[in-house]
Amino acid sequence: MSKVTFFTERTETPPAQTYPPGTIVIRAGGRAVDIQKSLQVREAVFVGEQNVPLELERDEYDADALHILAIDTDTNEPVGTARIVDKGNGVAKIGRVAVLSAFRGMGVGDALMNAVIETARTLKFAAMVLDAQLPVIAFYERFGFVAEGEIFLDAGIEHRRMTRPVR
Ligand SMILES: CC(C)(COP(=O)(O)OP(=O)(O)OC[C@H]1O[C@@H](n2cnc3c(N)ncnc32)[C@H](O)[C@@H]1OP(=O)(O)O)[C@@H](O)C(=O)NCCC(=O)NCCS
Predict the structure, then answer these.
(1) What's the Cα-to-Cα distance from 130 to each of 10, 20, 95, 96, rounded to whole Å?
(2) Which end of the chain is least crowded, N or C, by CB within 10 Å?
């Protein structure tokens, strides 16, 4: 894909429209509508690439989470995802950030994180937390997240907790 253009759609059922070739749409706000598409990406990345057991990859938070999707409008297929879980007390837990390997390095992860932060702001969360795999800490630092505490294992993978005020 030579040219990637990003649009953000805020409605669950966006109006039908034609996009220029190579357009990736970031859709924030889809819940039931988007969970299957989100799982499609997560299973390819976390289960397929990282060997996370399927039963750990899906969890009880998915039903109420806000799912953010990157969709390749050339194929109408999902290529990236992230989710926001309301942990109470103004805290948003960001997780399941994933981009299909063929679409990495094009700015999709960046666009997803910007949509996550914008959405957390719109929903008036005060703070964001996430559990970062160690090789991805530097990716989240680019968005102002700061690592804290000890390394811990989740699904057999080393992680550190990171936090950021929403502001
Ligand atoms: C981490 C991930 C989401 C990044 O997605 P991506 O679409 O490749 O990221 P982008 O193309 O938007 O990259 C944006 C910037 O972040 C940088 N970046 C990407 N991955 C990085 C990493 N692991 N560490 C540091 N910087 C990183 C890129 O170099 C780029 O910087 P630049 O604009 O200065 O060139 C993707 O690599 C992925 O899905 N990995 C596997 C799943 C995973 O580990 N998820 C995180 C679980 S905690």
Answers:
(1) 23, 34, 6, 9
(2) C
